[in-house]
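In response to the reviewer comment on reproducibility (Comment 2.3), we provide here a single inverse folding case reported in full, input and output, so that an independent group could reproduce the run without further information from us. The structure tokens appear first.
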């Protein structure tokens, strides 16, 4: 009886040791598999630890949670109001005057769309149709009050956007739901064949004197900034420094824009690792 008990006891211990050895073996295999998978991903140009929107999170949080962002918007439209009044004092309404604005991140806040992309780990244009169809973007702080003031002074408002023409109804519905002035077809100039806004600004200039251009992108002000490398964008901005806060009113946008395109030499087909490397290369360090 005693010897039988010893045999059973030893058999149980043996099974226990075997289970531990098997568990260790599986763990090592899984670890090696993960390492091999990671190495393969990096060789193929992807990094499983780097998502397509890692760099975007802080920018979206800044726009959605920083009081400083709101302050910058209010500051921009306070300056715009001051310049509007200055123009009226000097010129009156001898010729019909107009304000031209971009829409995205100048009139309407698309940060909820960017947040969706972050949380779902996707990129534009994923979910863009859904966002457009919802037509419920909120207004950028300060813009609605400013444009209603401009309307009360007899100034016309034109919205020039690079949203595709197919989103006209959705865009108008969004503007109307927020009670924006001049939310009508002939004051909304959408993107058609080209992304440059020059021809659309020229169209407004045929009937109005444009006293203010408001946007979050240098391309909203002049075609000279389009598709330029970073040093040239700096040079052109320095050259026009007297226009900012006078005729050009710029809004903050750290989420996307021509500035980001310049980092990648305007090649958005680069993969996540290539883009991250280019972002790192442009960092100035001591």
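Designed residues, in position order:
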């Amino acid at each position: 009886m005693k010897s039988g008990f010893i045999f059973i006891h030893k058999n149980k211990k043996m099974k226990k040791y075997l289970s531990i050895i098997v568990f260790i073996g599986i763990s090592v295999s899984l670890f090696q598999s993960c390492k091999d998978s990671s190495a393969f991903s990096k060789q193929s140009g992807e990094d499983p630890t780097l998502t397509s929107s890692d760099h975007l999170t802080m920018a979206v949080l800044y726009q959605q949670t920083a009081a400083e962002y709101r302050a910058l918007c209010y500051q921009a439209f306070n300056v715009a109001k001051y310049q509007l009044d200055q123009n009226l004092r000097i010129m009156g309404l001898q010729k019909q005057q107009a304000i031209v604005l971009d829409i995205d991140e100048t009139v309407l806040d698309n940060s909820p769309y960017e947040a969706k992309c972050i949380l779902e780990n996707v990129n534009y244009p994923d979910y863009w149709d859904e966002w457009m169809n919802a037509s419920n973007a909120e207004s950028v702080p300060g813009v609605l009050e400013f444009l209603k003031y401009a309307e009360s002074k007899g100034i016309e408002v034109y919205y020039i956007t690079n949203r595709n023409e197919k989103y006209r109804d959705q865009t108008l519905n969004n503007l109307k739901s927020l009670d924006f002035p001049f939310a009508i077809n002939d004051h909304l100039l959408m993107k058609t064949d080209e992304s440059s806004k020059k021809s659309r600004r020229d169209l407004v200039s045929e009937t109005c004197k444009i006293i203010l251009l408001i946007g979050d992108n240098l391309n909203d002000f002049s075609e000279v900034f389009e598709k330029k490398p970073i040093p040239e964008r700096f040079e052109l901005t320095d050259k026009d420094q007297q226009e900012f806060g006078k005729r050009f009113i710029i809004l903050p946008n750290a989420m996307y824009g021509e500035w980001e395109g310049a980092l990648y030499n305007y090649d958005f087909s680069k993969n996540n690792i290539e883009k991250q490397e280019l972002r790192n290369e442009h960092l100035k360090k001591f």
